[in-house]
Amino acid sequence: MKFQRGSLFKPEHNHYKFAGTLLIVACIQYLIAVNISESMFPGNYSIALNSLSDLGGTIPLVDPSALIFNISNIILGILIVAAVYLILKSGGCRLFSSCLLIFGISIGLLGIFTEYTPAIHVTLEALAFIFGSLALLFSYRLGINIQMTVISIVLGLIALITFISPLIFGMGDNNPFGLYFGMGGSERLIIYPIILYLTALGGYLSSRGKDWVKLRFTEGYW
Known about the structure:
Keywords: Membrane, Transmembrane, Transmembrane helix. The protein is mostly helical. 70% of the residues lie in helices and 0% in strands. It has one domain (13-217).
């Protein structure tokens, strides 16, 4: 049985720079869109009490706030999927890429299946949170340096622990995340570490030249 030991660089298909650029654009446009949507949300919006999904699913979908947020989700998903394709084409780790692919597809579909379709929305949200966190934890398999590895593990654990905290502590006031940060704040402790790290990873990949990539990827990594 053949299996891939981390990333195996293919010098004839070096697309890491472009993949990194796509990740940067995807994440920055999302963060800007969230900020604009929160500012334009009709009525009172609380980042502690309201979830991010409320921006696209508790008001008419034609409302500017909902349109901006949902379209941003779709763009985020499409660009992440495109980045995954380029990473795989360059010989990138399949485990990391698979997790990031599921995250990207789920995020993109969340822009279509909003809170008006609760069952589908919750399922996609769970997939995005789980595999987004796992993508961070497995990103070391891209052969990144120790500093980026530490950052990815810390942010990945923050996101994953926050997501599974209801299974550990229960719901309501028994859950310290919900008690101190609220539902909206807890959700942001999941999605923001993922988005911020992917922005950093995009910058990391896009700033590296062919010689660096060859040095880090030729032998492969567990």
